[in-house]
Amino acid sequence: MEDKEKKPLRMTASSLDGRDFSNMDLENADFSFSSLKDINFDGANLRNAKLRFSALDRTTFRNSDLRNADLSFSSLSNVDLSGAKVEGANFSFTSQEKPFNWQDFSLIGLIKNQGWLGTTVAIILGAVILYGINAISYFTAEIVYTDEPVRIKLYQYLVFQNIIAGVFTILLTQGLTVLLDMIVKRTTIKHLILTIVIFVANTLLSIAIYYVLGIETVLKYKQMYPTETAQSAPWYWYMWGPIIVANVFYYLSREGKQISRKISDQEYQLLNLEKLKTRAELDALQARINPHFLYNSLNSIASLVHEDPDKAEEMTLLLSKLFRYTTGRKTDDYFDTIENELEMVATYLQVEKVRFGDRLRFTVEVKDEALRDLQVPKFILQPIVENAIKHGISKMAEQGNIVVSIYEEDKWLHLCVHDSGPAFPDSMGAGYGIRSIQDKLKLLYGENARLELHNKPTKSVNIAIQKSAIEQHQQANHAVSS
User: What are the DSSP calls for 145-206, one per residue?
Assistant: First the structure.
């Protein structure tokens, strides 16, 4: 009997908090819209799995396979991805916001919460704001529509005093914010000090404005309307407004800083994830010597051992030098100087020249010697040269030429490989070597690099990279190494 095709696990919109899925084969599984908090996915195969719109807080993915998995729009607070394979994974629009709790009290967190508490707080704030707006509308209407001069002057004085007090309160609070954050640690003490300072400062300001601008108007008003209830309120009653405004402004200012800090932390984590993904993809795209080249070289050496031992020895040493270049350098270094890249290509061509003999001629040209110190992605030229031999020189019975040319033009660095073999066909599709270089350039430089195939004026493969993008990478690498 034939084995039935394995169907992928489907557990969408499920609550699976705290489960242990370690070392399980969950390839192509669908956990979308699920609660997956505190789950153990250590060592699990989650390749191509769908974890989008899921709560993944405190979930561990140590040494798991997340290649091409979709974690978009998910919550990833305190996630452990150490040792995980994430190339091709989608982390778009993930967040690391923590759910509201009393230990992390936040007015904005309360309002965002859709429960009864958040709704109550939103109602109170809405009522206070509406009350304030209506009070402004009332006094404005009194000034516009009241015919009595004394009442108009009183309301104008009160509006002016409140505007000055409001501006003064905000400026004073803003000035005290940095000082309070530097000197005092406890939030309640900060608000208490702010309240006392605002109370004293606004009292002195109100007294000053009263004696300079309002004393005559207020006395006339009291004489004309001695029984108005507003006159029976104590003077300090009107100090609540500036105190509330100052404390709310200070609180919102601190909350804004915390939100900015959280956003920055989240962006940093996302950048790290993107960097990890990019490095994994670069590992996959890092060019390796074609095994067919090794087979051909070893066969050539074997045939030369008896016919021409000196040439066999030369080819063995060249092959050793070539593989020392590919395996003897740091695996986490994706860049090398043009000088080293050209040395590697020249060694490769010398090996091939032993094989092809006089059928192969090659030249390496660098128009400006200063370009040799620029750093470019490793193994960016060798696959192109290999293609030039495989699809060009090897197809020719007569002598073939390969020219590697490095030059700068209009602030772009050009890495060109010309060969005298048959022209590129119009319907030619990019092979693995060309595709890997295109993908590598896109990952490292985005729109600041391109790869082009030309048949005119001469057959060539041209890599162009903006000089500024190369210099930025060199500065970043230097900063990291320092």
Answer: H---HHHHHHHHHHHHHHHHHHHHHHHHHHHHHHHHHHH---HHHHHHHHHHHHHHHHHHHH
pLDDT per position as a tens digit, 145-189: 777 788 778 878 888 888 888 888 888 888 888 788 788 888 888
User: Tokens 């009160």 sit at which residue?
Assistant: 158
| pTM of the predicted model over 0.85 | no
Q: How far is CA 295 from the centre of its chain?
A: 43
Number of Cβ atoms within 10 Å of the Cβ of 90: 19
Res. 462: pLDDT tops 90: yes
Nearby residues of 240 by Cβ (< 8 Å), 6 or more positions away: none
Q: What is the DSSP string of 102-158?
A: GGG--HHHHHH--SHHHHHHHHHHHHHHHHHHHHHHHHHHHHHH---HHHHHHHHHH
237-254 pLDDT, tens digit each: 677 888 888 888 877 777
Exposure class string for 330-350: b at 16+ Cβ within 10 A, else e: eeeebbbbbebbbbbbbbbbb
Report whether 322 contacts 351 (CB < 8 A). yes
pLDDT at residue 100, rounded to an integer: 42
